[in-house]
């Protein structure tokens, strides 16, 4: 029987079974050699206490392939992204990439704008007044917006006078006072016209109707533009057709050139009788004279204007 071996102080403790195994492999004396003194006391081993761990749903990670024993040590792998970031692609089907790759809330959809219906083309003046009487056409002139002159007017000037009409007096366009009062030939020029008509036994209240080629005042009393004439002249032609005057007295170069369709000077147009052919085939005598506003500036021309009035009166 083998004698017991004394255990050196400081040697690690072993049980009898471990001692027999150490002896068999010849390591009993080396194992039981006392350990050298430590420079400082070793910390006592602390008992590991297992703490309860809340269950965490770990992401599913595929197991790596087996590595041969001769391979290099495995490199530490970073933990997988949270489960929300590893959402399966199948759950994202139908979402545009521009939204998936965008930070922040998705853009609001653009509001739907209903297509506006195109505005109906305005009815030409001549068509709108084709069957209008004088009262209806007066309302149409007041509401007219066929040209840009409507934007600066105070009042549209339709015309005024007696009916039935023996004489139709046609001026150029309303002035400042006409625009203010809505009546043709008022102020000093109107007073002069009334005196001229009275000299040949005519009156605007009884047998003379007075109107203008243009029904709205042009800015600064300038001559109307061609597009303004084209828009407004159907009113004058409809007035002539409804009033059926015996003769027309045209006052001023612009009115004469417009009504007669010529670019001749007023000096060459006055002193003789012209004729205006209507749509009904009538031939209406036309006499051209100076505008009363011009006569106020040039009193020496009143004698010629008096001759024009007498020429119109002799056609009875």
UniProtKB/TrEMBL annotation:
One of its GO terms (molecular function) is uracil DNA N-glycosylase activity. It comes from Achromobacter denitrificans. Residues 97-118 are annotated as: Disordered. Residues 158-310 form the Uracil-DNA glycosylase-like domain. SMART domains: UDG, UreE_C. NCBIfam families: UDG_fam4. Belongs to the uracil-DNA glycosylase (UDG) superfamily. Type 4 (UDGa) family. Its EC number is 3.2.2.27. Signal peptide: none annotated. It comes from the Bacteria. InterPro entries: UDG_Type-4/5, Ura-DNA_glyco_family4, Uracil-DNA_glycosylase-like, Uracil-DNA_glycosylase-like_sf. It catalyses: Hydrolyzes single-stranded DNA or mismatched double-stranded DNA and polynucleotides, releasing free uracil. This is Type-4 uracil-DNA glycosylase. Keywords: 4Fe-4S, DNA damage, DNA repair, Glycosidase, Hydrolase, Iron, Iron-sulfur, Metal-binding.
């Amino acid at each position: 029987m083998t004698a017991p071996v004394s255990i050196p102080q400081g040697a690690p403790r072993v049980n009898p079974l471990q001692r027999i195994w150490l002896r068999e492999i010849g390591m009993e004396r080396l194992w039981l050699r006392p350990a050298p003194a430590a420079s400082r006391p070793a910390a006592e081993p602390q008992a590991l206490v297992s703490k309860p761990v809340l269950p965490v749903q770990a992401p599913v990670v595929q197991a790596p392939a087996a590595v041969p024993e001769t391979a290099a040590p495995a490199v530490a792998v970073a933990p997988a992204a949270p489960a929300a970031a590893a959402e399966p692609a199948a759950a994202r089907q139908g979402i545009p990439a521009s939204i998936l790759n965008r930070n922040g809330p998705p853009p609001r959809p653009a509001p739907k704008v209903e297509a506006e219906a195109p505005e109906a083309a305005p009815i030409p003046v001549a068509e709108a007044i084709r069957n209008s009487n004088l009262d209806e056409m007066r309302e149409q002139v007041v509401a007219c917006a066929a040209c840009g002159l409507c934007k600066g007017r105070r009042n549209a000037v339709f015309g005024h006078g007696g009916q039935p009409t023996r004489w139709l007096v046609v001026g150029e366009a309303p002035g400042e006072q006409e625009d203010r009062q809505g009546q043709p030939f008022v102020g000093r020029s109107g007073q002069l016209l009334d005196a001229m008509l009275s000299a040949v036994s005519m009156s605007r209240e009884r047998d003379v109707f007075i109107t203008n080629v243009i029904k709205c005042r042009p800015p600064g009393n300038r001559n109307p533009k061609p597009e303004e004439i084209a828009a407004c002249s159907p009113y004058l032609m409809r007035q002539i057709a409804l009033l059926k005057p015996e003769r027309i007295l045209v006052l001023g170069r612009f009115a004469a050139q417009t009504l007669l369709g010529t670019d001749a000077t007023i000096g060459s147009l006055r002193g003789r009788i012209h004729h205006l052919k209507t749509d009904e085939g009538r031939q209406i005598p036309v006499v051209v004279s100076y505008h009363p506003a011009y006569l106020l500036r040039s009193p020496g021309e009143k004698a010629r204007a008096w001759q024009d009035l007498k020429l119109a009166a002799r056609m009875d």
